[in-house]
Structures are given as C-alpha cells and as structure tokens.
Amino acid sequence: MARLGMREWMAVGRVMANGPLTRTERPGGPCDRFEDELAQFAGCQGTLAVSSGTAALISALQACEIGPGDEVLVPAYTWMASAGAVLHVGAVPVLVEIDTTLTIDTTDLASKITPRSRAIIPVHMLNRPCDLESILSIARTHDLKVIEDACQAVGIRYQGQVLGTFGDMGTFSFNQHKNMTCGEGGAILTNDPDLLTRARNAHDMGLGFRQSNTTDPDEIFLGNNFRLNEMQGAILRVQLRKLQSRIDRMTRRVEVMADQLGWAGYPVAPLHDDGPAASLVLTFDTELEAVQFSERRGARRLFDTSKHVYTEWGPILTRKMAHPGITPWAWAGHPNGPGPDSCPKTLDLLKRSCTINAMPDVPLPIVRYLARKLAA
C-alpha cells in the first residue's frame, strides 16, 4: 500500500491554515489543481475527483445514462463494488469469466452480450491490463459504453498509455491499499466533455459544480454527494508526484522475482502487455499446489481474497437490496440473478493462482533474497 509522509502532512497543514476545507468554496484549490495534474499525467482531457472508487463507478454509470432494464458486463473476479455500482443505478451486472491473465475473458464476454447490454466494465485487477483491443472492438460492434475499472491499476500503462483512458470513461480508487492514497477517494477520467459534465452533476447534489459547469439548466439531474475535500486533494497532489517512482520500484521488484521464479520452473501467469509488469501471479496445475505455496511469505492465494471473488458477494447473489421494491433483476428480466455456479472457470483459476507482493518499499537486495526463498 502507498505510504504517507512529511510532505503530505505539510500539504494538509497548509490547507488547514488557509482554509476552506470544502472545495466548492473557492476555485483553484487543491482539488482543482489535482484534477488538472492528474489529467496531464494520464494524458486525458478531463478528470473529476470523487470520494471513492465506488463513487467513481456510480457517477460514471450515471454519466453514461445506464439504468433500470440495462445489463452491464462485469468480470467475476473483481472487488464487489464493480458489480454493486451497477445495481445502485438500477441496472444488473452480467458476470463474465476471466482468462489465464486473471482479467476478463473476451470470448465469454462476446457470448454474453444481449439486446439489453449497454456497457462493459473491464477491470484491471492486480495492476494487470485487460485485452483492451478486443474489448474496444466488441464494444464498437455492439454500440456499448466502456467504463474501465482501473482502481487496482492507478498509473499503470498499457502499450504506453495510462489505463483508464482507453474507454469512454475510466475510474481510479485512492483508498489505502491502492498505488496512491488519501485514505479514501477516487477519480473519473474521460476525453468526452459531455460525459465529464454529467459526471460532475452525478457526483454533486449541491449547486457548486452543477451551476458552474452545466450551461443548460434543463440538463441538471439529481446528483449524489461524492465530493472530495481540499485536505484529500492536497494529499493526492503529493501522492501523484510520487506515483511513477513507486510504479518503477514495483516493476523492478516484480522483474527480479519473476526471473527467479521462472528460472526455478514456477508457472508465471501471462499478461496482455509485453511491457514492464507491476504484477506477479503464479497459476499452478492443482489447487493443492496453490494452497501450499500461499503459506510462503509474500504469497496469497487469489481464491482467499474475500469480496474479490464473486461467490463472496452475498447481497448480490441473494438479490438483497435496501428495499424490497428495488428489483433491478426483475426490471432487466433476470428474476434469478447470478448464482454461485455462474463462472466455474473463474473459480478454478482463482483456486490455483497465487499473487506475490511487489514489495515496492523493500530494498532490492532483500527482495532478491526473498525471491530466492520463494523459489526454493
């Protein structure tokens, strides 16, 4: 997880000394500047800072006018919020298998498109890029929106381009387990100014953003309260300056461990990109091998990662919403919803796969020593 230090502490101190803390009180504050800097870093036209990765997904779905009766294709291996956000806008997630890269299986994706399909949410899990060429081709063929969930891949590049900038919209998360953090936060990225305007509306129930960024008041719809505050914006500006060096440390350490484990004959899972990898996964022939390997320091079996596995999404599998009158599955003609047996290939891969911590804050000589221990 990303670390906070003295520079973040000083940045927050300046905000507290100068005020205000709410970003709508004064233009040009830390949140505004962070959005400009993030857009420059990512190479996209516009960004919007929000309160979490989940808030980013909900706002992006609302910006794309996804709602009741719609289907959104989501991988069966992702944090529960990727599917939960779809339900929160009244649509339903259609679960798609993953392939050996541990990202969405584009063959299964294409087979599950129906006349109700409106969008795809490819998720770049564990800093591992999806097969974006195939996904975008499928989306164009079927006139689907693509909302990239890059919450677990903030700052990672695919063929030289930052993930989250390929589709119609992209989403980031800045909670404490991500590549950069302000404790809890998120962002939306897009090159479509109309989608950015709708996302601003979606994330703000107050007047600050909607009146200043929407030229036609008749287009204003009821939004949420997903705003970031200026202290979080100040932290994120510092974290963004550290992001590339952190990713470089991750890729160097993954390279060291992958070389050692590959030389020892361990089954390193493939990636869709030939560039520097910030993720290392081993996929064994049997579940028992993965269980035994997961007992080693720095390794964790993917099936044991709780709400990242669709069979652990209790409220989604039981179709339990806050009120019995909220029935997205019925609205979309799916009264039964997904079940525990919906994606057997995904479960098999997760049971046989282990991820290895990239250890970006550990000195490289120690990483080499630990890699030898893992490979022993």
Automatic annotation (TrEMBL):
Protein name according to UniProt: 8-amino-3,8-dideoxy-alpha-D-manno-octulosonate transaminase
EC category: transferase
An example Gene Ontology biological process: polysaccharide biosynthetic process
Record EC number: 2.6.1.109
Keyword Transferase: yes
Protein family per UniProt: Belongs to the DegT/DnrJ/EryC1 family.
InterPro entries in alphabetical order: DegT/StrS_aminotransferase, PyrdxlP-dep_Trfase, PyrdxlP-dep_Trfase_major, PyrdxlP-dep_Trfase_small
SUPFAM superfamilies in alphabetical order: PLP-dependent transferases (SSF53383)
Keywords: Aminotransferase, Pyridoxal phosphate, Transferase
Species in which this protein is naturally found: Falsiruegeria mediterranea M17
Alphabetized Pfam families for the sequence: DegT_DnrJ_EryC1
Cross-referenced Gene3D superfamilies: Aspartate Aminotransferase, domain 1 (3.90.1150.10), Type I PLP-dependent aspartate aminotransferase-like (Major domain) (3.40.640.10)
GO MF annotations in UniProt: pyridoxal phosphate binding; transaminase activity
